[in-house]
């Protein structure tokens, strides 16, 4: 049993098998095509000398009987088999699921036979059948790292320092770009700087730290305004509000204290986060790695067809990559591009016969890279079965992610 479907240039499909309107009586030209062998004869020498060979166009001829209503069913054929227009034939049997593209040479109708017979001739410039499913090989795998249950710790600094540089009671508070505060001078009275307010959720314990060592009730402190006893004097402090609260954070330099380039690094975080390394306001929590790409330098690429075939090769840059290259281990052929890729670049190489190209997509602009190919580069072809390739680059090969897409091709069905 087999299935034959025709698709016209508009994407419309007509199944010719399992269709009460038609009975296929013969399909000619779906076996392996003929080859043209070019030779040269020499005088007084038996035989000839081989020069070259190639496979000629494929001609497929479909013969079918048209059931009634004959006129309607015949005209339906005209919609799919228009002279000179393209048509795609899908053919499926127990072992092959393929298609082939061609152009309609003619459709001939035996109008005056007892049952009308149609003979459709299609010329296929590419004589090989293509597998419906492509073979995709990635030079790298994705390792899943995300597991349940999980917890995202709120490790960001919740304090947005809104104070300005100022001098009060002999103390100069210099607010730095990263949210730290440098303090200098001798306090002629208690000197205060309100850093800003923090929105705290009720019944959650928060930690305040960032006061330099040496703080105390006679020198300096960092503290929650209005919260008695919760002072940071160099070792941090915690606070658990009963309800949602909006609380100011303050620095105080007590009267008589002298400070010289004293740096406060004020930070409010959820207390369950034990790491007290300073973070600027709004810094995100430590990233949770959902997955990781593991790159392979050498990978087998399978050509599932029965003839040599080209491939679509995509090179994606996850960072800078200098002079990317692909090497066929068996044939020693190489394909090297003299270009420096930037993060996000995509190079697409098409090594399929009659379609050869190499382009760079960067920031939405496509550029032809044919002129950047290294001397000696070959348009890599894949033999039937396993083909081993190595992906490399002069610099940062670890940033290169490569995908091979192979259209499996067959001589016949």
3D structure, described in words:
There is one protein chain. The chain has 413 residues and is mainly β. The protein folds into 3 domains: 3-128, Elongation Factor Tu (Ef-tu), domain 3 (Beta Barrel); 136-144 and 293-410, Jelly Rolls; 166-270, Sandwich (Jelly Rolls). Helices cover 3% and strands 49% of the residues. It has one helix spanning 70-80; strands spanning 3-7, 13-15, 22-28, 35-40, 49-55, 58-66, 86-92, 97-110, 117-124, 129-131, 135-144, 166-168, 171-175, 181-186, 191-200, 206-209, 220-224, 231-232, 237-239, 245-253, 258-264, 267-270, 291-295, 298-303, 312-317, 321-328, 334-336, 340-341, 346-350, 357-362, 365-368, 385-395, 400-406, 409-410. Strands 1, 2, 3, 6, 7, 8, 9, 10 and 34 form a 9-stranded antiparallel beta sheet that branches. A 7-stranded antiparallel beta sheet has the order 23-11-33-25-29-30-31, with no helix packed on it. Strands 24, 26, 27, 28 and 32 form a 5-stranded antiparallel beta sheet that branches. The longest helix is centred in the N-terminal third of the chain and has 11 residues, at 70-80.
The count of helical stretches stands at: 1
Segments where pLDDT lies below 50 for 5+ residues? Answer: none
Main sheet: strands, sense, barrel: 9 strands, antiparallel
Q: What is the residue-averaged pLDDT?
A: 88
Percentage of β-strand residues: over 45%
Outline: elongated
Tell me how many strands there are: 34
How far from one another are the termini? Answer: 12 Å
- Any idea what the radius of gyration is? 38 Å
């Amino acid at each position: 049993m087999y299935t034959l479907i025709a698709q016209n240039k508009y994407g419309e499909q007509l199944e010719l098998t399992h269709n009460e309107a038609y009975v296929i009586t013969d399909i000619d030209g779906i076996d392996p095509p003929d080859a043209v062998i070019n030779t040269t004869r020499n005088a007084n020498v038996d035989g000839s000398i081989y020069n070259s060979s190639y496979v000629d166009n494929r001609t497929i001829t479909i013969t079918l009987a048209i059931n009634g209503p004959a006129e309607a069913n015949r005209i339906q054929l005209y919609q799919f088999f228009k002279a000179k227009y393209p048509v795609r034939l899908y053919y499926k049997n127990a072992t092959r699921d393929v298609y082939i593209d061609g152009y309609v040479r003619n459709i001939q109708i035996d109008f005056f036979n007892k049952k009308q017979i149609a003979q459709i001739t299609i010329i296929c410039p590419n004589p090989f059948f293509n597998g419906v499913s492509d073979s995709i090989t990635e030079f790298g795998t994705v390792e899943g790292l995300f597991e349940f249950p999980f917890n995202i710790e709120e490790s960001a600094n919740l304090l947005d320092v809104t104070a300005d540089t100022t001098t009060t009671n002999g103390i100069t508070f210099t607010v730095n770009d990263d949210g730290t505060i440098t303090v200098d001078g001798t306090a002629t009275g208690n000197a205060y700087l309100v850093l800003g307010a923090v929105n705290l959720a009720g019944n959650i314990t928060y930690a305040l730290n960032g006061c330099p060592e040496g703080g105390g009730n006679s020198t300096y402190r960092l503290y929650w305004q209005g919260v008695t006893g919760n002072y940071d004097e160099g070792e941090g402090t915690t606070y658990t509000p009963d309800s949602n609260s909006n609380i100011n954070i303050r620095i105080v330099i007590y009267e008589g204290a002298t400070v010289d380039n004293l740096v406060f690094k004020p930070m409010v975080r959820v207390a369950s986060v034990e790491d007290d390394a300073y973070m600027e306001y709004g810094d995100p929590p430590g990233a949770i790695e959902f997955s990781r790409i593991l790159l392979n330098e050498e990978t087998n690429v399978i050509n599932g067809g029965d003839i040599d075939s080209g491939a679509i090769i995509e090179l994606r840059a996850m960072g800078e990559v200098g002079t990317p290259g692909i090497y066929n281990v068996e044939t020693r052929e190489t394909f090297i591009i003299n270009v420096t890729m930037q993060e996000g670049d995509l190079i697409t190489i098409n090594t399929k016969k009659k379609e050869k190209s190499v382009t760079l997509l960067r920031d939405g602009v496509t550029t032809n890279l044919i002129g950047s190919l290294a001397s000696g580069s070959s348009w890599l072809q894949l033999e039937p079965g396993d083909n081993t390739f190595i992906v490399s680059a002069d610099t940062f090969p670890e940033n290169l992610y490569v995908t091979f897409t192979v259209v499996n091709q067959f001589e016949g069905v």
